[in-house]
């Protein structure tokens, strides 16, 4: 058996669980998420020297994982389930005085998140649905923390508009 390069092993160690966490949100199945992520890592390993030549290997790997997850969802005849699962797993829903009202509100929020541009969507899902910090999100996406903060700010403004929560200008 061939020994994996140390940098690949370190990358795998750092990001496998994060990628599975994200993939499971979309596939709604841990086994499928693990399989999709492991396939993505296999793809990354087979072209590891080329991956490292990319300007931003973390960003490249993120795209590979996202595409592999989408492929798995399509192959199983499913669409990604972030809206459904996130709404039902919201902590506020479990403790809500008006669960139906809370569910309706959650569905509107998650539908608005789905409509965000890809980078904004990724940042919001990683930070607000999965609970990663700004630094962790930056590391996962291969961007700077300032880039995450800026993207979050734009995404929040877009969500406020979509949900009719904009403050009136005076």
Automatic annotation (TrEMBL):
Residues 109-157 form the RNA polymerase sigma factor 70 region 4 type domain. Keywords: DNA-binding, Sigma factor, Transcription, Transcription regulation. InterPro entries: RNA_pol_sigma-70-like, RNA_pol_sigma-70_dom, RNA_pol_sigma70_r2, RNA_pol_sigma70_r4_t2, RNA_pol_sigma_r2, RNA_pol_sigma_r3/r4-like, WH-like_DNA-bd_sf. Residues 26-79 form the RNA polymerase sigma-70 region domain. It holds the Pfam family Sigma70_r4_2. Signal peptide: none annotated. It comes from the Bacteria. CDD domains: Sigma70_r4. Belongs to the sigma-70 factor family. ECF subfamily. PANTHER family: RNA POLYMERASE ECF-TYPE SIGMA FACTO (PTHR43133), RNA POLYMERASE SIGMA FACTOR HI_1459-RELATED (PTHR43133:SF8). This is Sigma-70 family RNA polymerase sigma factor. It comes from Streptomyces bugieae.
